[in-house]
Amino acid sequence: MYQRVSTPLKQGPTNRADVTFEHSFLCSCNRNLSHLLEARSLMNIEESLDQFGFLSDVAVVGGAVRDKLIGREYDDIDLATSDVPETVKSKCSNRGIKTVDTGIDHGTVTALVEGEEFEITTFRRDVSTDGRNATVEFADTIEEDLGRRDFTVNAMAMEPGGRIVDPYGGIGHLTDERIVCVGDPEERFREDYLRIIRALRFAARYDFEIGFNEQDAMEDLSGRIADFVAVERVMTEVEKAMKSLGYRRFMAGMLDLGILEDFLGRTIHNKTELLDVGAVRKAEDRMALFIWRLKHCSLIESFDALQSLLNLSNDLIERAKAVGNAVHLLQQPVTEDVRRKILASYRDHLDAAKRIGHQAFDIGEDKFEAGVPLGPIATGQDFLDAGFEEGPQIGDLVERAHRIQLEEKITDASTLVERAQK
């Protein structure tokens, strides 16, 4: 039911009542959430409800409502309606709003308004689940739709006028700073085992506690994740967690439950080192450092093997290999010409290596300065212009000239061409 948001709510369905959302409720909660009020919304929920008020029983659902209530920025606004997709498309078309069938088989279309994307989904209920996917059918009410969601803090909706639909006590759990499942935790996790990882991520992101019953169910069921969930979905959650200041806590939970070890098929050693990413600030840098350390802490023979086990992208593997190896080598005592060769070898990822080296390993930024261009100055064309015939020897000459360039800090192409011939 709609209840006044200053009153903690108990979990479980309730009846509807009318209440208007008041952002100021945060200041009077039993737990003080005022430290989360500094961020400002990127988009406006109320404006989106006005924009799509022509849809039947329209409401904003999911993360935008949760983040609105605790004063955090939200990137996406998702809407739900009792209208079926064809009706949504027709109503939007009548108002000059373009739609795209992004998930129409599951009841979702995406509306495009002034460069913004809004996912609009017909109310749904689960018919069956298999631990990975759900078979759904259209539902009649927003309460039915919210009842199929994972956690109470995600099972809230905002209707026009600022009215909050909260049948499972999500507001109370926000104020208590707890991650609690909608209904029975074991049943909810068995529906989709990825929810175990999502519980870890949400708890880490918001610095919330996970409910006791939820913790017990997670410990009992985490060993089944590798059997039911594609590794790509798991690594997507890991990458999302890396964007949060709570990434260490998230990863500690993953390691405690042995989730990554189940996918790797081996023990991860020195978990303390794996968790230590120092003061690395960019999420993509944290991820690269984590993957590099995971390879070494799990004693996997190669990055190719790690890529195969976790189905990682080529870009991530190359970035992890480059920044990790560069930082490792630059920590060793080497001569200046060798240092320049190291920098040249990893020049495509040198900016990231410089950030990680400085922030996580306290390597001086001057160690990443070469004092000479790192890419080859003398090109194959320079050798052709000097009278050399095309063939494999051109590549050898370019490589030799590049080595001389780095060893002796020569920056003149003609000099390098001449020196490479000798």
Structure in words:
With 422 residues, the chain is of the alpha+beta class. The chain has helices at 45-51, 63-69, 85-94, 142-146, 170-176, 185-191, 194-206, 212-221, 225-228, 231-241, 247-256, 259-264, 271-275, 283-297, 303-310, 314-330, 336-345, 350-361, 380-385, 392-408, 413-421, and strands at 59-61, 78-81, 98-103, 108-113, 116-122, 124-129, 134-138, 157-159, 163-165, 178-179, 209-210. The protein has a seven-stranded mixed sheet with strand order 3-4-5-2-1-8-9. A two-stranded antiparallel ribbon has the order 6-7. A hairpin with a 4-residue loop joins strand 6 (124-129) and strand 7. The longest helix is centred in the last third of the chain and has 17 residues, at 314-330. 38% of the residues are buried.
Main attributes of the structure:
422 residues; alpha+beta; seven-stranded mixed sheet; two-stranded antiparallel ribbon; 21 helices; 11 strands; 46% helix; disordered N terminus
Q: Low-confidence spans: pLDDT under 50, at least 5 residues?
A: 1-43
The best one-word shape is elongated
Order of strands, main sheet, comes to: 3-4-5-2-1-8-9
Quote the beta fraction. Answer: 5-15%
Q: For the report, how would you describe the main beta sheet?
A: 7 strands, mixed
Would you report the number of β strands?
Answer: 11
Number of helices: 21
Radius of gyration over all CA atoms, rounded: 27 Å
Distance from N terminus to C terminus (CA atoms, Å) equals 85 Å
What is the arithmetic mean of pLDDT?
87
Structural class estimated from helices and strands: alpha+beta
Helical residue percent band: 40-55%
